[in-house]
Amino acid sequence: MRKLWIVLGLLLVASTAWSQTGTEFLAQEPGSMGEGWRGFTDISFMVNALLTLTLAAILGAIIAYHPKFVETADTLQEIEAPKVFITYSVIGALIGIMVVKYGLVVGFVLFGIGGLIRFRTVLRSPSLTGTVIFVTLIGLSCGLDLPHVAVLATVFGFGLIYILNASLTYRVNVRAVKAACIQEAAVAYRRIFEAHGCKILFERKYPSKCRVKFIFRTSGNVDRDAIEKEFEEKIDESLRGFVDWEVD
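-> structure tokens emitted (248 positions)
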């Protein structure tokens, strides 16, 4: 009974607050919320926003690359998760910049867009979901007559994505390996990957499934044709399997 009264009290407070502010909000005439192109002359705001985005990226990276996360990551999604964390941190900063400077009306709009993306957008990876939210906010900035915010966010995001994707992560499954030779096969494949400058992040052997899985990172695109050619030339036929590649 006590909990019921608490809930009713909260509903009464919310109803009163809405009656005071909601009617005014709905009655507002539509119009520009920003300064338009003159916003580019607000050097102080531009510098402060840039510093805010930078701080958000740094703080997001501190959490994203926590040693415990690095130690326990054993899937492609978990290994690539830090990029998603940093991107979302910057997204949060961009939302905060617009809400603080231009009011809570922006918050209502962002809430609606977030729900639309959450329930209507299906992408193949979390990083792509983060990117689509980011570009949506850039478009929202333009629509709210905030071109200076949109340009600044675009330039910052472009550089951030370039940095985060300076190295590529691959997942390779070697299938149909003879169970009795799976250890030797794993060593043979690993040596060729490392010879091409690949840093092995994760390796697991599945004797029951006759499969070996590798996750590795490289500073650039690997020459897959050259690597697969070496598989055929340097790995004994008795150790060879079928290779499936996946890149993120």
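The chain is about 65% helix and 10% strand.
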